[in-house]
Amino acid sequence: MNTHIKRWIDELVLSLDIGEEFFAMSIKEKLIETRGTNFVCDNAAIGWYLNRQKYVEPIKTTKGRKIYRRIKHEN
Fold first, then answer.
1. For residue 21, what pLDDT band results from cuts at 50, 70 and 90?
2. Vertex 42 angle, CA 64 and 66, to 5°
3. Can you give the pLDDT at residue 74?
4. Which of 16, 25, 40, 61 sits CB 3.0–4.6 Å from 20 for a disulfide?
5. Which residues of 38-55 are buried (b: 16+ CB within 10 A; e: fewer)?
6. What percent of the chain has pLDDT over 70?
7. What is the pLDDT of residues 34-54, one digit of tens each?
8. Whole-angstrom distance, CA of residue 54 vs CA of residue 34
9. DSSP 7-65
10. Residue 22 burial by CB count (10 A; 0-12/13-18/19+): exposed, middle or buried?
């Protein structure tokens, strides 16, 4: 995953409302829709990146998919 995709993921997630829930797959779909490219990483890599961010909280796993929640993060 390159720095452009990481920046795009950050922009997408930070544009969500606080408390909004999402899947890594939905982030991938929005990336393809907004950036118009299929050159994005797979869902597992997006999930790996989201697990390490301070503004995202993993909630639970449903049918092999992890649900994430956007949270407020103070610097």
1. very high
2. 25
3. 67
4. 16
5. eebbebeebbebbeebeb
6. 96
7. 887 767 788 899 999 999 999
8. 24
9. HHHHHHHHTSPTT-EE-HHHHHHHHHHHH--S----HHHHHHHHHT-TTEEEEEEETTE
10. middle
